[in-house]
Amino acid sequence: MMELDGVVELGRRRRKFRKPLLTRPLRTLPTIFECPHCGARAVSVDIRKNERNEQGLVHAIIRCGNCGLYAEMWVPEIYHPVDVYSKFLDAYLEGRIEYKFVKEEKKVSLEELASGESIDANREGGERAEEEAEEW
Questions:
Q1: Of 31, 49, 97, 124, which is most buried by a Cβ count within 10 Å?
Q2: What is the largest CA-CA distance in the chain?
């Protein structure tokens, strides 16, 4: 027992200091892959589990958003997108798969179209003003 200024402090065991455990984030499988044709990281895999063939395989669609590479495959239901991509990549590099290039058209809303026309009109007017300034 220690006595300081009339206050009695009882001694007790010191608690062990525990360092907080670092929690690491769980690793997830990728969903966007590298295109074997153009090299861009823009290949997405869509597995349609409701579309089956007579063997019980599901329909998978592989698309590149950059160059328009498009392929379809039938894969087992247990496959994840990363499994489909690796199977596609093997078949693509060996030349065993049919693929085509489909460029998706960009859909523009009416508001964007209306604002885009006004921007183009202003730009044309600005070009005319610059041409007139050059003449002087």
A1: 97
A2: 101
Instruction: Name the residue type at position 126.
Output: G
Tell me the C-alpha distance between 66 and 71, whole Å: 14
CATH architecture observed for domain 32-101: Single Sheet (2.20)
Tell me, what's the pLDDT at 118? 47
What's the rounded Cα separation, in Å, for the pair 29 and 27?
Answer: 7
Query: Where are the alpha helices (H) located in 1-136, listed in sequence order?
Result: 81-94, 110-135
Tell me which residue of 25, 66, 19, 16 sits closest to 44, measured CA to CA. 66
Q: Alpha-carbon distance 62 to 47, whole Å?
A: 9
pLDDT at site 103: 76
Sequence-distant (6+) residues with CB within 8 A of 131 are: none
**pTM score:** 0.60
Predicted confidence (pLDDT) per residue in 56-77, tens digit = 999 999 999 999 999 999 999 9
What is the C-alpha end-to-end distance of the chain, expressed in Å? 100
The predicted-structure confidence for 3-39, as pLDDT tens digits, reads as follows: 556 666 677 777 778 888 889 999 999 999 999 999 9
